[in-house]
Design goal:
single chain, 9 helices
């Protein structure tokens, strides 16, 4: 009996990815299920566009870019701003929201440390706060001083990381997505 050619890694992987894809599709709610939520009534007309939910190369790339940008830049309400941003730029809404999960309790300390180091390297000189009323209040003056001295490098670094991650995410989706 003739011996068949050995299977490649991608040939071995394809049946398994189909099963995972089917399971994932069953568990992820559809666009209509999400939009049927009563609390989404005010924004339903903006989110009902099919281009915001279609798994297309450019739409997904824009969704990844927006999600990474908002996820890294904003410490609160990332999900909301990522969805609004994806709606504005016509990116994939669900993927944009999912990409905000790049920051979570495990990743925030190293991300913020790297952002501070980058910002400290980019922003020249130390910042000082010379406000007499702020220093008279005690802890508020200390907090304001810390915010001015450490906040500027941190926010600068977060902005640089957010822009770099969104550009890399956009390019990576375009490069990894197979053209049909």
């Amino acid at each position: 009996m003739p011996r068949s050619a050995p299977r490649t890694f991608t040939q071995t992987l394809k049946p398994r990815t189909r099963v995972i894809g089917r399971r994932l599709r069953r568990q992820v709610p559809s666009k209509d299920t999400i939009l049927a939520q009563p609390w989404l009534r005010p924004v339903r007309p903006y989110l009902s566009d099919d281009r915001l939910w279609a798994l297309e190369r450019h739409s997904v790339a824009k969704g990844v870019a927006m999600g990474l940008f908002m996820g890294l830049l904003l410490p609160v309400a990332q999900f909301l701003f990522a969805v609004v941003g994806a709606t504005v730029i016509r990116g994939h809404v669900a993927i944009s929201a999912a990409c905000t999960l790049v920051t979570n309790p495990l990743t925030v300390p190293p991300i913020y440390w790297a952002a501070y180091e980058i910002g400290d390297w980019l922003v020249p000189g130390p910042f000082t706060l010379d406000l007499a009323p702020a220093q008279a209040i005690g802890w508020l003056g200390t907090a304001a001083t810390w915010l001015v001295t450490h906040g500027m490098p941190l926010m600068t670094g977060l902005f640089v990381l957010a822009v770099a991650a969104s550009v890399l995410g956009f390019v990576a989706v375009h490069m990894l997505w197979k053209r049909r």
